[in-house]
Here is the input.
Amino acid sequence: MSKIAVKVDDLTVAYNYKPVLWDIDLEIPEGVLMAIVGPNGAGKSTLIKSILGILNPIAGSITIYGKSYAKQRSLVAYVPQKGSVDWDFPTTALDVVMMGTYGGLGWIKRPGQKEKKAALEALEKVGMLPFKNRQISQLSGGQQQRIFLARALVQDASIYFMDEPFQGVDATTEIAIINILKELRKASKTVVVVHHDLQTVPEYFDWVTFLNVKKIATGPVKDIFNDDNLTKTYGINYKVSIQK
Amino acid sequence: MSSAQIEIQLIASLVAIACAIPGTFLVLRKMAMISDAISHSILPGIVLGFFITQDLNSPLLIFLAALTGIVTVVLVEQIQKTGLVKEDTAIGLVFPALFSIGVILIAKNANDVHLDVDAVLLGELAFAPFDRMLLFGVDAGPKSLWIIGTILIITLILLFMFFKELKLSTFDSGLAASLGFSPVVVHYGLMTVSSVTTVGAFDAVGAILVVALMVAPAAAAYLLTSDLKKMLLLAILFGIFSAISGYWVAHWLDASIAGSITSMLGVLFLVVYLFAPNKGLIAVIYREKQQRIEVSLLTFLLHLKNHVELEERHVNHLNEHINWQNLRSKIVLDLALKNNMIEIDNNIVSLTEKGDLFTSQAIDYIITNEDTQIEDMKADFFLFRG
Ligand SMILES: Nc1ncnc2c1ncn2[C@@H]1O[C@H](COP(=O)(O)OP(=O)(O)OP(=O)(O)O)[C@@H](O)[C@H]1O
Ligand SMILES: [Mg+2]
Here is the structure.
């Protein structure tokens, strides 16, 4: 068994005192490409935000390679759910990608040539270099998603959390993104993705976590991605034709 | 110009700059209303500060009043957090309460306080030059100039130091938090600057003008640029322009300076709202019309490309077939001719080589949304601009 990248113990998170995640225990091994699946409102985004210290849990502990998140920030990159930012904000694609370098700079220090170069490389990798000076609202949904991905790549982290990176993208972009994710895993990075398309789980991912307020199951796709867990998670009698 | 006139314009301009900077971020954070709340609810802080210090320009008073501003923000957020009401409702609950406490305090002590509600709301720039700052017994200019100048310098220093943090937490507070730039700290930093600026400015220009100077220049700048730095710069320039032009309008009309500046801000915003090149009302209407015509043009060209039969390409037939009114057909035909995309021979329309190429590229673009190959077409056609 390899190292544990992320460990979540007894995590409970609430909005306005109403718990949306109950007593979650979760271990994410290093080097996996993990899908988190569950219905809308299951708490998938909440789980990721709690791991990243964006939300304060009411109970439980979270460690990244054995230490608190605050100490390990530089190891973690994050692609938020697309609706979470204001796309009319006056900024360009390049500028948004540069934001990924801010963490390495710390307070006050400004990005320079080195950061710009890294951002341009990341844009190149996601095929968005021709759009670098576009105002971000002038990009299509799939292009916006690629910009977010480039911003995470520029963080050059060990663990990547992505909240629905395939939301509203076409087949070409989906393949482009999944290839980048597979490349990350090849470089022994850990990648955790909130994913809605159950059909593609076995093809894209090697680990999966079922979540619906509580953790239903977590483990290798080939062992636990079955109708039983799907039914427990989604509440209805689930029959996907899973190609094993 | 007398030196008093120059001083008034200088004070108004510095106030405008000091307001435009936090104002830009408030507008981007969709928090314009909070500046309204702060500007009104600082009143009890000012009155209490005045009881203690007996000096409207004392730093302690500014501190106390700014603190009331922060309390307002905290109260609004706490009420909002209960989930029972929305933010605007929470603002509407908090600031009238605090403002009315201020009004009552003034009314109860009217005899020994030379403060009145009108002065708080509208200020009186014209009197600002009379209250002088004495340094070692030497006249060093109006006190308001010193106060707002100090606040402006601090604001500028903070802006230069924390521009990156402000931008990031305004655009994506989630990423800011995960990278360790506490959005809460940035938020309260911005609220503190807004409160201090409001207090420092209100004595000269009044609460209403402070709100207008924070919101209007930033909102106008927002319509003109998609670059945050340019937006800040434009907001500052708009603020200065309104301050100075407002002063002269007041001078000629013998009207209130604060009122005239506010009116100039309104006029300025209206002009920008109408005429802004991309986001302005007229540009939007024009673009929509242009895009409609271009879609028609493309439909027309595609029809020509798909039909070799002569009868399908007869001018009259096109009219019936594509089912356009004559005017529209004529506009489209003229546009195609002007761009050398078609030839008309004996009332038979055919595509030129250029027209043929254009049609294929345009269709290609619409299907694949690939950008690079049509860069040169963008200048002539709206359809391909985003
Ligand atoms: N800011 C908030 N305030 C109050 N409740 C919230 C807030 N954000 C989310 N919730 C609630 O918490 C629950 C979990 O939300 P979360 O966004 O984590 O779900 P999700 O699994 O990511 O859903 P989706 O698939 O729709 O993205 C939902 O019931 C939601 O209504
Ligand atoms: Mg979500």
Remarks:
- The interface with chain B takes residues 16, 49, 52-54, 70, 73, 76, 78, 80, 84-86, 89-92, 96, 99, 102-103, 105-108, 110-111, 130-131, 134-135, 137-138, 140, 151 of chain A (CB under 8 Å).
- The mean pLDDT of chain A is 90.
- Strands of chain A lie at 4-15, 18-29, 33-37, 59-64, 76-79, 159-163, 190-194, 207-212, 214-220.
